Amino acid sequence: MRAPKCAVPLLAAVVLTACKVGPNFKQPNVEVPAQYAGASANPTGEPVPPVTADPTDGSFWWRQFHDPELDRLEDRIAAGNLDLKGAFLRIVEARTQVQLARAQGLPSLNATASYNREQLGLAGIVKSQHFDTGTSPAAAALITGFEKPVNVYQIGFDATWELDLFGKVRRSVEAADARSQSAVEARNDLLVSLQAEVAQTYFQLRAAQVLRKITSGEIAAQSDVAELTQNRFEHGLAGEGDVDSARAELATLQSQLPPYDQSIETSRHALAVLMGQTPESLDGEFGIGGELPPIPAVMPVGLPSTLARRRPDIRESEATLHAATAQVGVSVASLFPDISLTGTLGLRNLSPGYLFDWDSKFYTVNPAVSVPIFQGGALVGNVRLSRAQAAEAELNYHKTVLNALQEVEDGLSTLRQDALRTAFLRQTLGADQRALEVDTNLYRNGLMTYINVLTVQIQTVQAEQQLANALLTQNTDVVKLYKALGGGWQDKSVN
Fold first, then answer.
1. Which of 162, 181, 373, 390 lies at a 20 to 30 A Cα distance from 365?
2. Is pLDDT larger for residue 243 or for residue 44?
3. What number of H helices and E strands is found in the chain?
4. What share of the chain is helix, strand, coil (3-state, %, to 5)?
């Protein structure tokens, strides 16, 4: 047993001096501006929500709309969406891969137990050596005894350990860890997209309700006008063409209701499916009428330097780069020798009564070295491939950061234009409403033809619809900006 005892300090020294070949990962550095250009491009007096460099808690950006129904929807999407559940399972799979990679660097130990009944065939061996058993009765009796079948009992342990001298296993674990983190960030990125989709779909539903309400009001008003026109026609104060025009405008307004109802239903169905429910499960929710929530009073955009930490797609790209860098170390370590230790320790005896006697012990120690000599260029090719993949991952990281910066700048620019358009449409609607009120009174008093009233009425309806659609666009673009800034992915359940 001296040899194994002497090997212990030698193995410890070897393991302590082991190294990891290949490059160490360093967080990539991408130059970004000190602040977003769109955050300071608002002229004085421009009707644009002010921005601030102090972001609020990105986990709950939708609460800036102060809409309880939207808050409930966002909570339900995080709990019930089937895609999110699938992403969580992918995280579990990735973390299991980390465990499997770590297991490669640990000794494997197997317990064995066996029973054999053997016929040794010793007499035949003696005869083959031309040994005369007649000259020695004792030898003859011994051989005869061994000719009887014997029972062999054996228990023991087999152990194998591949020494990670050049860090192949440790680099594999590092790569698996990075891929696990990439799976987490992919789930976070999916959550950001789903939260934005829920908000945008909810806003579409509310906008359809607003447009339906506007159209219903116009239908009621046009019904009064059509009735008035009919009365004037019966008293000879209006022509038949005026009656037909009033009825035609009423039918046109009524024809706009079915598309709005369809939009409300499809939006409601989409929200239900996003929550992992059947399409009709939300049919009793959201009421008949509703309003679009106002946009947040302040837009917290933060600083470009913090974007890489807030955007899960950038974090995912960084984790992918980390995994590719570690994989370079794995391929480089394959160029070096593999050293493994294999040993067996057990007890063996012909009698079960003496099986656990220490004198029945046996052991083997088998150190082995495998040196790669010729693989047809495969090992060197793997190194070149892994280095190229790492370089590509680094380029993808830089591209992801630049795309994120562009999305934020585009979002800020879009919000400024949305605010201007909304302000002008409000002015247009106010003027049309005042003109319609005046012309309607003149028509009721017989001082204006109906064609003039109809023209202003159509303009007013169109202005109301354009304003509602502009408000929907504005709310949707606010959601896009929040998504571009990183959205609400800070869910501690998977971190």
1. 373
2. 243
3. 12, 6
4. 65, 10, 25
- How far is the C-alpha of 237 from the C-alpha of 439, rounded, in Å? 17
Distance (Å) of CA 101 to CA 12, 105, 109, 244, 438: 22, 8, 17, 80, 80
Written as six digits, the tokens of 342 are: 């294999």
State pLDDT tens for residues 256-283: 899 999 999 999 999 999 999 999 999 8
- At residue 117, φ and ψ (nearest 5 deg) are -105, 120
The DSSP secondary-structure symbol of 446 reads T
User: Would the pTM of this model clear 0.85, i.e. be above it?
Assistant: no
- CATH T-level topology, domain 21-105+166-334+379-494: Outer membrane efflux proteins (OEP) (1.20.1600)
Amino acid at position 23, single letter:
P
In whole angstroms, what separates CA 282 from the centre of its chain? 26
Cα separation, 310 vs 397, in Å, equals 14
pLDDT tens readout for residues 392-436: 999 999 999 999 999 999 999 999 999 999 999 999 999 999 998
| Local structure of 338: helix, strand or coil | strand
Sequence-ordered alpha helix ranges (H) in 235-288: 240-255, 257-274
CATH number for 107-163+337-371: choose from 2.60.40.10, 2.20.200.10, 2.40.50.100, 3.40.50.1820. Answer: 2.20.200.10
Which amino acid, 405?
L
| Cβ pair 143, 126 in contact under 8 A | yes
- Would you tell me the crossing angle of helices 312-333 and 378-444 to the nearest 10 degrees? 170
Q: What is the DSSP string of 374-425?
A: --TTHHHHHHHHHHHHHHHHHHHHHHHHHHHHHHHHHHHHHHHHHHHHHHHH
Dig out the tokens for 286 from the structure.
């959201």
Taking all residues of the chain, what is their mean pLDDT, rounded to a whole number? Answer: 85
Q: Where are the alpha helices (DSSP H) in 104-239?
A: 122-128, 137-146, 168-234
Is the separation of the CB atoms in 361 and 346 below 8 Å? yes
Per residue in 32-86, pLDDT tens? 888 888 776 554 344 455 565 554 445 588 988 999 999 999 999 988 899 999 9
State residue 145's pLDDT score: 65
The residue ranges of every structural domain in the chain are 21-105+166-334+379-494, 107-163+337-371
